[in-house]
Amino acid sequence: MKPSRLPLATGLVAMLVLGVAGPAAADDRAAAEQFFRIGADAYKSGKFDAAAANFDRAYDNLKAPEIAFSAAQAHRLQYQADHDPARLKRAIELYQAYVTGAPDGTKRKDALVYLERLRDALDKIDPRQLVAAAARPSLYVSIALDRARITVDGVAVERYTAIDVTPGEHVVAASADGYVSQDSRIRVGSDRAMIAFELVPRPATVSIKSQPDARITVDGRPVLLRGTTTEVPAGTRWITVSARGRRPISREVTLEPGQAITLDAPLQPTAQRRAVRWVELGAGALVAGTLATAVVAIAADFSAADLRDRTPLTVDDARTYDRMRDRRDGFRTASFALGGAALVTAGIAVVMYYADEPSTDALLRPVERKPERGFTPVAIGGGLGLGLGYTGGF
After folding, report:
1. pLDDT tens digit string along 165-211?
2. How do beta strands 260-264 and 204-209 pair?
3. How many Cα atoms within 13 Å fall on the side-chain side of residue 68?
4. I need a surface site. Which of 72, 151, 222, 234 has the fewest CB within 10 A?
């Protein structure tokens, strides 16, 4: 029977049942998480030998039945490829660990079916074939990043490949474009040693070409610009450029680790900001009207005062005096009215100017949600298509 190449289910969220692994040190849990993620990547790539090695190491650090089930799957599928009886024996041990540790597990029935089949297959194997081969000094480097460059003592090696080395201390290094390089020293004894790397992606550099007072948000969170640039975590991001009185510009971008990009974001005035200009012009016109009527009222007042000081007044002077006084009063009232209207209009313009902020909805768009934590065995196909789905941390 050909080995299944069905990928490990990913993107499935399940909560890790508290207490399922018993008390474990934080370092052990972190190591289990790291080895499990690398094993999941190997499983998806059909590298069941590498998946089994990493799942085994994850199980060594955290005795969770779900991890045992996934490791059993990898050993079983690798046995179908190389027919190594040791794989068969190890798969049986791990399936039994899952059945014992998870009496109410969702894959208990599947595990029992596999146990029956594998035990029947093991009974047909000559016991002499089950003698374990003598261990040799070797080094196994685990890393999920497919474009990673790995060296052991300066010599390039393939990932997911065990290499024979001499006992003693060795320097292992891993690097990739856009990632922070790592190196570590590891001591190899008389058997296989294993080391795992997870390279940290460098942030992308985003340069924003926009107006000086523009504000930048990434996934709804404000960021500070150094000059015109900012560093943004790699991945799919929702970048918004906004400013008071301007229509915001939003764009979804996929950023590679260490990538440098430039975004042009010319912000256009909003309808409200354009209306402010007209309101300001209206306020200016009212101020001009206020000044003009005030000047006429003052001139009429002076004219009335000159006539009032004359003695005796003629009939025409008296009529002119009354007319100047009425003009003074009328234009003074108009000046007060226009001045009040100018103040109100100017206040409206100020409010419109400073209240013209982009809405919160225009700035927010969640792109990546932090997944819930945990893992569980899941069915991804018939018969041979079973795996372990995992998202999040421990």
Report:
1. 999 999 999 999 999 999 999 999 888 888 888 899 999 999 989 88
2. parallel
3. 22
4. 222
